[in-house]
Design brief:
The protein is α/β, with parallel strands linked by helices and 259 residues long. It has one domain: Rossmann fold (3-Layer(aba) Sandwich), CATH 3.40.50. It contains nine helices and twelve strands. It has a ten-stranded mixed beta sheet with strand order 1-3-2-4-5-12-11-10-7-8, sandwiched between helices. A two-stranded antiparallel sheet has the order 6-9. It is globular and about 45 Å long. It starts with a strand and ends with a helix.
């Protein structure tokens, strides 16, 4: 378990972050979250960190990161049932919540949606997603888009991707905010303050390189060029940091506005 903070009041509650793997941490998001929200607490259940019983107990927000396991593979990651319970509890409590990739899939499952192995193979690299009108009115994604857009209402957002599992049915009350050509559910909101993202605003060049180098045969079999992917992400590093900063600042702002 790790706490990071800057000068904040003693009673400031941290954002609870659940990390599933050592190569899938906050990375690019960490600085913007700390700068805006003041404190985070990272729990790593794969290293034995316990998860709280309720998401709202002592925390101002919940952020669940990605991982290589599937959202339904409780035998691989035995903390997933409690993570799903925390996500459902956070939605009921109106606690600001963000799920990234696996985290977004867990949010969908926790709230009655469906997640499956994607039929269209790996979605990987820098990819455009289509921003829907609803996104611009959304507290979190709209806030991120406005920080990026310099006043223009863009219809596409270029983001890093690395997944094959995908949400195949949103929870009944979910609002779709962004869609994609290969997999349609790229960003959504459940309730008033819980968001799921399929893409990876947080991923660093180092973590992305580890993911690529760990799965070269699968990438090659799927028609992807590992070296090209690494070059593509490296060349976009500055823009990807802007995307991360906008998402981190917007989620931190939502977490502060809720209290």
């Amino acid at each position: 378990m790790r706490n990071r903070q800057v000068d904040t009041p003693r009673d400031a509650r941290p954002i609870l972050v659940i990390e599933h793997e050592s190569d899938a941490g906050l990375a690019r998001l960490e600085r913007s979250l700390i700068d805006a929200a003041g404190a985070i607490e990272v729990r790593r259940p794969y290293l034995g960190d316990p998860l709280p019983e309720r998401a709202a107990d002592g925390y101002r927000a919940l952020l669940v990161l990605g991982g290589a396991m599937a959202a339904w593979e409780d035998d691989v990651a035995p903390w997933l049932p409690q993570t799903r319970r925390l996500l459902a509890d956070a939605v009921r409590a109106d606690l600001p919540t963000l799920g990234i990739c696996l985290g977004g899939q867990l949010l969908a499952l926790a709230c009655g949606g469906s997640v499956e192995r994607g039929a269209d193979g790996l979605e990987v690299g820098i990819q455009p997603i289509h921003v829907l009108d609803a996104a611009w009115q959304d507290e979190f994604l709209g806030g991120a888009l406005h920080r990026l857009s310099n006043g223009s209402q863009q219809t596409e957002l270029t983001v890093p991707q690395y997944h094959q599992d995908a949400v195949t049915r949103l929870p009944d009350d979910a609002i779709l905010l962004a869609t994609g050509e290969r997999y349609p559910y790229q960003a959504f909101r459940v309730g008033s303050r819980a968001w799921g993202l399929q893409y990876h605003p947080e991923v660093s060049d180092v973590d992305f390189a580890f993911w690529v180098n760990s799965s070269v045969p699968a990438l090659t079999a799927g028609g992807h060029d590992p070296e090209r992917l690494l070059t593509q992400v490296g060349a976009a590093s500055e823009e990807l940091q802007r995307v991360a900063d906008s998402h981190g600042a917007s989620f931190a702002a939502a977490s502060l506005a809720a209290h």
